[in-house]
């Protein structure tokens, strides 16, 4: 019998089937909450053993459901104001069918929320108990969701059918008034905007994306969708209010000769007037309001425009401030460095070399390597250094046949160094305390008898580490060089834990006493 792979591995296809869609999947948030893949699998088993129908907040079904509801909600928030303001009951069978479908879906959503697992406030577990889910939902979003899911679509469909099937003029007029009231009442469905905001927050939580750029994209998308909805609603209101007043002679609709215009033309003019008022331009509102209703519409538009500006500027400022903090910190450090160099009146050539060093050392991003290494576990630290430096150590003869534990002990002692072109890394006959491994770059090793170029993967200075003596050659950087260094004290500290290796290296020192080491 075939078994499901991944977190649902404890459930066979014959016994689970579609229930696997209800189980938690591996994503950024689930791993953060539970800590490991094994813990996620245990969470799957916990849900299966409970034996109740509950949709886990990290399940595949929940992810698809959120995306579907986001699209339906956004279409509702666009279409409902358009229908009320411009379509005048002539929305057509397709739109009425969509209204009924949407109302049905939102009613189902209210019911499903009683079976939708939630994340605890401390973020340490998912609540799957039916009673706790029910109490939490009733205390928070139940009433707003019920109001937003009120089935206006059914009422409108029934009223439209009665209106078209009734030939009595008095009843027809009465039905028209009822239809107008119901259409105005359908504005309560705009409360679904709260669902859209919640869906956006949940998308970011359950997303498998781990890149800041993706999270930033969702924030920008949600911000511009809200701004678009604000402008869209305002434009619909611009036309809707004169329509309620049965288009008085001094209203803007009659002044612009839009009584018999198409819906697209009316909507365009409405949005144009709304934007003109929201961004405080005179276009579209040259004349002063002719009555107090228009005056209030203009004031509300201006206030909503100010709020839109405030939200847009605040969010843009926050996003810009959070983009690439390492680069901002680097620029701040460089600014302080430039002030220091100017204050100390350093020569321009030296200032340029210092700036070049920082660029070569940090690459435009400020970070403290020691702080990074201190925040990770010792095992991760070894793995990082193994990837970066293991190949360098293995090229050194005295390390080639050594035990893996000894290599790992040496790796954690390595330090990263950068040298600019022309730097004298070590000088001949000068006491030294470390050896160097070239990661990237070229150097020139000069002795009294020969010169030799070294490049990526080469090393020098091993004599100082083994004998604590003087350097036997001068080494200069021919290009910018990225190196790792091992100090004499750190190396001998490692040797204290490996006496056999220490004895072997003492023999190597005796065999190379002819000066081949540098």
UniProtKB/TrEMBL annotation:
TM annotation in the entry: 64-87, 93-112, 141-163, 175-192, 213-235, 295-323
Q: Its GO CC terms? A: axon; dendrite; HCN channel complex
| Main localization, broad class | membrane
* GO function terms (MF aspect): voltage-gated potassium channel activity
- Is-annotated flag, keyword Plastid? no
The record's listing under Gene3D superfamilies reads:
1.10.287.70, Helix hairpin bin (1.10.287.630), Jelly Rolls (2.60.120.10)
The way it spans or sits in the membrane comes to: Multi-pass membrane protein
Q: Name one GO biological process term.
A: regulation of membrane depolarization
Domain Cyclic nucleotide-binding as annotated: residue spans: 398-503
Q: Where in the cell is it found?
A: Cell membrane
- Keywords in alphabetical order, please: Cell membrane, Ion channel, Ion transport, Membrane, Potassium, Potassium channel, Potassium transport, Transmembrane, Transmembrane helix, Transport
- Please give the name of this protein: Potassium/sodium hyperpolarization-activated cyclic nucleotide-gated channel 2-like isoform X3
- Origin organism is Cottoperca gobio
